[in-house]
Amino acid sequence: MASNVVSPASKTSSRGGDSRKHSDDTRLALLFITPAAVGFLVFLIWPLIRGIYLSFTSYNLLTAATWNGLNNYKQMVLDPVFWNALKVTLEYVVINIGVQTIIALVIAVMMQRLTKSLVVRGIILTPYLVSNVVAALVGLWILDTNLGIFNELLKLIGLNPVGFFTDGPWVIPTIALVNVWRYVGYTSLLIFAGLQTIPPDLYEAARTDGASEPQMFVRITLPLLRPILALVLIISIIGSFQVFDTVSVTTQGGPVDSSRVLQYYIYDMAFGRFRFGYASALSVALLIVLMIVTFIQYRLTRAGQTDLA
Amino acid sequence: MATLAPVDVTTDSTPPTIAPAGRKRVSVGRVIAWVVMVVIMVVTLAPFYWIIRTALSSNGDLLTHPSDPFPVGFSLDSFKRVFGWQTGAAAVAAGGAGQPINFWLYLRNSVIVSCLVTAGQVFFSAMAAYAFARLKWRARGPVFAVFLAGLMVPAIFTFLPNFVLIKELHMIDTLIGIALPSMLISPFAIFFLRQFFATIPNEIEEAALIDGASKVGIFFRLVIPMSAAPITTLAVLTYITSWNDYFWPLMVSYTDKSRVLTVALAVFKSQTPNTGPDWAGLMAATLVAALPMLVLFLVFARRIVNSIGFSGIK
Amino acid sequence: MKRIGMIKPKFPKFAKPGTTRIKAVLATGVTALLATVLSACSGGAGGTASNVISYWLWDSSQEPGYQQCADLFHKANPGLSVKITQYGWNDYWTKLTAGFIAGTAPDVFTNHLTKYPQFVDLNVLQPLDELPATKGISNDEFQPGLGELWTGQDGHRYGSPKDWDTVGLFYNENLLQKAGVDPSELNNLAWNPQNGGTFEKLIAHLTIDTHGVRGDQKGFDKNHIAVYGFGGLGAGDNMAQTTWSAFAYSNGWTYMNKNPWGNSYNYASPKLQETLKWYFGLAQKGYAPTYNSFSSSFGGFNQLAANKAAIVQDGAWMIATYQTIKGVKWGIAPMPVGPTGHRAGPLGSLADSITKTAKNKDAAAKWVQFMSTAQCQNVIAKAGVVFPARPASTQLSLQTRKAAGIDASSFVDMVQNNETFFLPISSYGADITAIMTPGLQAIYTGQKPVSYLETLNEQVNRLFKLN
Description:
The structure holds three protein chains of three kinds. Chain A is an all-alpha fold. Chain A is 71% helix and 1% strand. Chain A has helices at residues 8-16, 26-54, 71-77, 80-113, 118-125, 132-143, 149-156, 168-195, 200-208, 213-241, 245-250, 262-272, 276-303, and strands spanning 57-58, 66-67. Chain A has a two-stranded antiparallel sheet. In chain A, a hairpin with a 7-residue loop joins strand 1 and strand 2 (66-67). Chain B has 17 helices and no strands. In chain C, strand 1, helix 4 and strand 2 (81-86) form a beta-alpha-beta unit. Chain C is built from 20 helices and 13 strands. The longest helix of chain C has 20 residues, at 21-40. By secondary structure, chain C is α/β, with parallel strands linked by helices. In chain C, helix 19 runs antiparallel to helix 20 (452-466). The chains are: A mainly alpha, B mainly alpha, C alpha/beta. At the A-C interface, helix 2, helix 11 and helix 12 of A face helix 5 and helix 19 of C. Chain A: Residues 1-22 are annotated as: Disordered. Chain A: It is found in: Cell membrane.
């Protein structure tokens, strides 16, 4: 992973050579990362190490943890609820990220190319001002099979009502789309920020060459946006894997296990059932999945890279 | 990371006439684009209609008319409950909660926490991002990868140790205790800013170095101003995220003095496993808590567009 | 103020590397910010003094009543005062758990039957019989059974009962009227797992499809229902407090070999299997909602209020919530009589517990004892939210409700006629819930046959053998 994140700045300097005398900024760099590093070690790394340790123990939160080696992991491999949760979570992530990224990209490009209206920008972000829990509750009301307005509308046009939060095949797509609604504006603003790095002159030049908007999107926007788009994807996928609130409010994992996502299972295991050791092992599994996914993404975004000019 | 190439292109191909993006001839493509945009905005706003409609209704009528498209039993009582203007008994009778609500104190607390988090997180992350993007040091790649991995640490690992730590620092029930864990670092912010800092052309930096600028000076006078748009974007989003944060402030706060708006307004959520929430109050609370954020965003919305740009620098 | 002193030495650590100008500026800036915030918040961590007893509850509608009790308590014990804090259900338990770990738990808190066995196992509750003020609390003071529910396997008392509840039928009077049913008929219903008895006949008649055809008429379309005769059907969990447990018990079933504190559950019993076959079968016949008819958050209460259900089964604690409905007349009837010849309803109870970390246990015990007295329980009775644990206060509560136009006597009758049963109290409660909830949903939705209960029961009982 490390070798993939070398910035363009360093690439040029090794080519150039005139900046040799500045080539070692170690002391300054350490100074600059100190505050972040302190926060990182205290609030993220120490808890992480502790969590990994606890995944090898039997721990009920209130009495001392006792070492039990690989037992939690052995149990996990044989736990059908875990494998199902992993599958359900993946389904959620695919739908959530797929839809969200495409719509966000469309919105961002339009905010750049179609309209500079502040009102549009404001509207796009409004769902993010509503908390996860409230977004889920509003979804419950609007989408309920018998009490929701949306199903009333479906009935008006002659369709059968749908159990969005109660019908096995529907629950994960519904939860995924509720969260697309909330996060798409946020994502599109991040992408929009990335679009700002593309010099407007490029579009002008392409226009004089007679390029159409779609051509410009493919030949200018997409390639130049790639670093930011990769970032946005990584961030949102990591966030998406940790979906919890919406499930907890709307379906509590049901029907049966159709929406029992990993994070919900972990949380119940830790704070409902006080099996923190096992919950830690499940969390380590989630962490490993995230690392694999991120690694693959880094590879892919680099491998697929084509320089425009 | 094909970010250097465009600079070469722009130097030799930019015609001096730059037409504003808005003034273009009407084409089928643009019409379709507008239709898509309007559809997206309608879908975005539709649930807000339902939030407003519910906030303006009274709870008793909402239950009997769950899918009536208009406010039922029109009333502004829900807003009175949010601001704490309704007596406890009246609130309970209307399906709300009976506690006193000290709205302005909670608002102040929220503002303080969000300011601390945003200022700290954005500034410290910018420093770190600068080190990762533009300074040359041996362990840069691996250290950055480790920071990036910080994004993936599950919340369930961090919650309890951080809570115990804040307790041992005697910061339970203080605003600083709420803000501290996210003030120093956000791997996301570092990652985000690093991507932008990396896109700044080397030639500009080298020119500044030749002019005698120090690396510290470059950070403050060059990198930060040139990245004003992404920094503003990040700051606004961080502020909103911190404003909406619920679980951690709930854990750290024990009394009114450190209670932030989201935690205080949670009394409108379901109180027991069996009864329903104060729907009208909850939706009114949502609107009231979101409004300051909307104003904040509109104030800064103009600035999330890069005013300097690359052509401007040259 | 003390706190600032403790934190201050930490600042120089940030400030020291300030050899460069930015660092210095930065450090002063942050220090100034922190100082402002800290001085703004230097009030002290509320309620840490040992003469202030911290007390938590989750039900905000009960807070005004207990605040009154707290004021009375302060008057009786001028040296002591009570600080009440309320958190919503989910937050409450998470914050309590975190509090146990970090030592920030309250001195006294409202405890729940589903949670306390776990807390007993985790050794965080103070036995009340070991403290002077609560030593004298006796089971005889409360409604029969309540004291027993809150006594641990080791014979210690872990909670002082504050209220009780059971279940009954809530009916929508408007819908009954339209069907020509007199509410008093609901007092004489009986059910059985074979043909459902008079209860099923009644709910069939109360059910209306989208074309206006009733469930007991020809041409009834069971797939398109406008009004369910019996709403609020649910898969339930290991307790099934407001779903099938009342029916199963009136069919002669019991949760486990010994309650409280048994170690072998009876979910595989044929009695339960036939009960569930009939109960979930009501949904297939159209008389009750199927799993996907309503979100799990919109149970019987919402369905009745929206005129989507004529009769629902609900708990006594919901009366105050039903009172907020506008435009629907409603009433309460007892559960139907089952094959055993009796009605049955689960007896639930909340209680006050003292944490092992309480700063001043004697003072905490005084407050707990005060809440169990007639003086405080009568205040709670008049607040009209729950039935207090003392029989005399229960009667007072009944009168308060009568004055408000609500006849809640069927709940009290069930207790007096000995027709209640204990909710299951055993170890591994949360683990059992995790097994039973999805399992029951699978049966309700038809993914698994009723005999799947045998598999579930095996999984449940394995918990007691393995651990």
